[in-house]
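Weekly modeling sync, notes
Attendees: S.R. (lead), two postdocs, one rotation student

Agenda item 3: backlog of single-chain predictions. S.R. asked that every request posted to the team notebook include the full sequence so nobody has to chase files. The rotation student volunteered to paste the first one in as an example of the format we agreed on. Action items at the bottom.

Example entry:
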Amino acid sequence: MEKASMIVDKLNHISYIDDRLYGSFIEHLGRAVYNGIYEPGHPLANEKGFRKDVIELVKKLNIPIIRYPGGNFVSGFNWEDSVGPKEKRPTRLDLAWFTVETNEVGLQEFSDWLKEVNSELMLAVNLGTRGPDEARNLIEYCNHEKGTYWSDLRRKHGVDKPYNIKLWCLGNEMDGPWQMGQKTPYEYGRIAAETAKMMKWVDPSIELVACGSSHVNMPTFAEWEATVLDLTYEHVDYISLHNYYGNYDNDTASYLAKGIEMDDFIKSVVAICDYIKAKKRSKKRIHLSFDEWNVWYHTKESDKKIERWIKAPPRLEDIYNFEDALLVGGLLITLIKNSDRVKIACLAQLVNVIAPIMTEVGGKAWVQTIFYPFLHASSYGRGEALKVNIDCGKYDSKEFTDVPYLDSVAVYNKEEKQLTLFVLNRSLTEDIELNCDLRTMNVKRCIENIALEGYDLKAVNSADNPDHVKAINKNTNIFKDGYMNTKLNKASWNVFRFELN
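Predicted structure, as returned to the notebook:
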């Protein structure tokens, strides 16, 4: 059996974690909205047509913000279509996903649903086919009290108090050729700067996210970020990162090391942000919004066969397996490790579309394997992130060298007097005997030992067998005299929670 040691020291401070690190995303795409969160004919639908079983599962995840309505969808979206009486809303062709959009669910309905799940709105504006004028009208509609055309129109629509949306995305993936209104870095930077300026004139209290590259392998990556930030630096607060991960070659050893790739991406963007800060002699620091991240590869080929121009086809419905859950745990560790600069992150997406929660039309709602690590991080990853010093074995894979078998981060919650340790064992063949020094943390006892372990790497959950892969509670008698001694099973996600004196 492999042996490893760790030290958790309260002086190894990374950052206080912004709760918005545990955000998510719902786009008008596939069955995310229609026959996902919203299904009026379902036996468990509430009076507004939203599924109560889905609401309860979303509430468990304790998600502080949800990005909406896209995504690629937003680049052709006329926001005016989604407000006012439903019977007067137009049906449109959505060129992002080649479907029909009825606008039956819009800004008002989605805001009502957010109240049900105790979350707040991260709203994206269309900078593909539209621009600053529509954006300043939208923020006036949403955030101005009364006495103007757009704010009074909101009140006429039955919403007396402003939505008071504080976090906004300036478009989506504007570097992508798949995007309606694709732009060069200069074209996007100029329109984003003018949009940001006008939006903040309407409401100076808002925060704005500029579009970064669509993913790390885009041909304009780095040049895009530098140009956009050069043009928008004084007007925006964050720049976005998007990246998805997949085990295309069935190379699990490389796949479970993708957190290294995510970490490199984050640090590269941080370096660009700080270069522009230095270039401008600015005292302002730009932070990161990793507002699209997840596993996405299972349905890439099958989705090409979906019929065009129908409403809510089953698109991007990846069925996640056990190894996907392990990777998601590792990606969450990476985000927490970088919480000094990554303040916002959105698991993309939330229901049916590359999602932790799935539904059957007229039937059950159930959770996928990736639900569990996200649940654990969102529930117990609030507080102060601490760097963990690790001494363990390493391995080489086709894509990476010197990959540590263990990846870990700790979170110290001073108010609740608790410490949580997240640990991923990437080894596919070896259990690891772990000795963890917790003496500086003044630990009283281990209160919970959670693990996701022991499954076939390709094991999945389904509507008929929703608990096939699930987290278990293990022995908590693993702490004595300042040390935790335990065995980490091969290919496992582990959460250790401690009560402090």
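Discussion: group reviewed the output briefly. The chain has ten helices and 24 strands.
Action items: rotation student to repeat for the remaining queue; S.R. to check formatting next week.
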